[in-house]
Structure formats: structure tokens, C-alpha cells
Amino acid sequence: MVKVIASSLRKGNVVEQDGNLHVILTAENVHPGKGNSITNVNMRRISDGVKVVGRWRTVEMVEKADVDDREYDYLYSDGEGHHFMEPATYEQITVPDDVIGDQKAYLVDGMKVHLMTFEGTALSMELPQRLTFEIVETEPVVKGQTASSSYKPAVLNNGLRVMVPPHIGTGTRIVILTDDNSYVERAKD
């Protein structure tokens, strides 16, 4: 365990509070106009999965656990969970649905992700920031709308719904941000 300042806590960090380990889901530093700055944290207790809210002054010291952050290859999903392999040692790890959450729509065979583990247990998964998918359903392209600032809904080949510019048609491969499902650009491949 290492003591760190509360304002440095980020998503995926593991902290010790009240004798239990917690993985941070969201962390936000709040600077009110008057008074001390605080860090608000939503976290999940590792032992039983209960979500907990933490609040510290930004200058307080917090116990941070040392987690193993490695790159893994996604293999497949089944009834047991989602299976990943560490490329150097070929060691496999199974990650349950509650750790992956709504990010499972992004998982594609062979994809490289970062898994944070503590004593052999997966705590959180970090996806690549940008991913490429194909549009399988959207409204037809209307001539003359290339410079419009409006967006139209589209369904990707992984089932996600995103908003795309009007000049993007069905069958086009696009790049999206995994943080908020937003359109970035047409894929260059």
C-alpha cells in the first residue's frame, strides 16, 4: 500500500478504506468558491461488489493498493464470463460481467485491452480510446448535406447506436471514441 493525495485518484485505482479494498469507478475534484476543495469518488468494494461513495479533502492522504496493469488479448465470451490472454505468458484470465459492464459491446476477437488485476482478480478494464466499426443501418445520404452541422442516428455492427454526420452512409467504416460513443471520423483503412 502507498499513501497518495486524494486529488490524484483516477478511475481504475484501488484504494483501502475501512479495512476493505475498493476499485474507483469515477473520481471528481470539486473546487467550491468558498472553503476547501474536495474529491468525490464512486467506488465498488472488491469483496462483495457493493457500490460506495467516498469523499475526501483534496489534500488528504489515501491508501492506494499496488495493482497489476497489463495488456491482454480478448479471446471470447461465454456463460462463465469474458476470457483474456496475457500475450507474453499465455496465461488466461476470466473476467465476470460486472467488471466489464457496458463495455462488452466493444469487445472484438483479438482486441488488445488493459486489465487491472489485484492478486489474480480482475478489477477493471481499459479499452483503446478509439475503435473502428462499420455502419449497418442509417438514413440514406441526402445530396447537398455535406456541410450541415446536424447529425443522424446510425447502428454499428456491434449493436451500438451513434450519431453521425448526414454524408455518412450504410457500409461506411467509422472511428468512434469509446468514452462517450461519439463519432470522430471516417476510417482510413
TrEMBL record:
Pathway: Protein biosynthesis; polypeptide chain elongation
Keywords: Cytoplasm, Elongation factor, Protein biosynthesis
Pfam families hit by this protein: EFP, EFP_N, Elong-fact-P_C
CDD domains: S1_EF-P_repeat_1, S1_EF-P_repeat_2
Entries under InterPro entries matching the protein: Elong-fact-P_C (IPR015365), NA-bd_OB-fold (IPR012340), Rib_uL2_dom2 (IPR014722), Transl_elong_fac_P/YeiP (IPR020599), Transl_elong_KOW-like (IPR013185), Transl_elong_P/YeiP_cen (IPR001059), Transl_elong_P/YeiP_CS (IPR013852), Transl_elongation_fac_P (IPR011768)
Subcellular location: Cytoplasm
GO molecular function, one term: translation elongation factor activity
Domain Elongation factor P C-terminal: 131-186
All residue ranges annotated as the Translation elongation factor P/YeiP central domain in the record: 69-123
Family the entry assigns: Belongs to the elongation factor P family.
Function: Involved in peptide bond synthesis. Stimulates efficient translation and peptide-bond synthesis on native or reconstituted 70S ribosomes in vitro. Probably functions indirectly by altering the affinity of the ribosome for aminoacyl-tRNA, thus increasing their reactivity as acceptors for peptidyl transferase.
Protein name: Elongation factor P
Organism: Devosia yakushimensis
Gene: efp_1
